[in-house]
Amino acid sequence: MGWMRRSCTTRLCSTFDSAPHSGSIGKAIEIGLTVRPSQAVPLLTAAPAMRRYQAFGSLFAAGLEGVHRLDLHPVMAHHPVTPMAEADLLRHLAQQTELPGGLIDLEALAADPQARLEALLEGGARILSLDSIDAGSEAAAGALIWRNRDRLGFVVGSQEVEYALVRYWRESGLLADLPEPGSTGAFAQIAAGSGSVSPVKARQLDRAGRNGFALLPFEAARACGPDAALRAEEDRLVDAACAATGRGQSPLVHSASGHECAEIARFRAALAASSMNGADANRRIGEALGRILDRVLRRTGLRRAVISGGDTLGHGMRQLGLSALVAKAPTIPGAALCTAHGDGPHDGLEIALKGGQMGSEGYFGWIRDGGGPR
User: Fold this and answer.
1) Taking Cα atoms as reference points, which of 245, 282, 288 lies closest to residue 264?
2) What pTM value is reported for the model?
3) Counting Cβ atoms within 10 Å, is residue 181 exposed (0-12), middle (13-18) or buried (19+)?
């Protein structure tokens, strides 16, 4: 559509993983405004379909035991790189940028969001944080962005931007409803790599290990040492994964089985004893898991894969030489089974990417079965 060509959207995680020293969303907004001038920048982070909610400026996300404010979330409050100590997103962003912000909250969305927008713009707000908790507020946020697209041409958000726009387009008749796609069909085996420390992923590993997956622990502490030690660990796991494939199992290489496991304690001890910072160590873990997956796919010929872990995804995908994804079958919101494209042997690979805290306990098996509604 024409608006998409004239506008720019910057994507971020719906749990707002960021800090002044790593993944600074505030800095990204500043840079984006130099490329795509905009009177203000709508910030739409929550994704109700993924059980991520923003109410009166504070972000909430679901965990194993229900919905938690982000600074009290059992995963995000303890994130290894960007732990969230502040749930109010404008307060959080104030540590990353001096751009003034304003809130368009649930009351404004339900009453007169345009009036609130005009007041904020008149007051000089450059970042516009939008609440969203349900279908009504989601559609109202989408309508506000769409109707003001000529002057708010730079939008920052998670999947919620697409959810909000599509919901409004459907409600207003601009977009027709389409039938939901089904499963693409089961594969006997897939390959997977996971760098998350989430307790959700720990349950997923347990379920996978009881349902045809070979759980292969990656010693993350090796990422804090010399390159030779890390490469030796990669070689060991590639051989183990290929052997598991030969036995009819689906190899699943993982760096931890939860945020309180012994592997994490060893990693933290190794990191403390090294001269490396946490961001570099986590990057090395993600890259190593990507290289392992790359080599396993090449040697075994498997054509479906999963990468789990928000920080792992980008680093791992680069090792596969992939540059584009086309959704193929639904699973959980935000983690569809996709067809990947790129210059190299993995062009056409079916792959699913998900954050560590996302998904049902049977997610890895769901991908092996080809996705589709459950």
Assistant:
1) 282
2) 0.76
3) middle
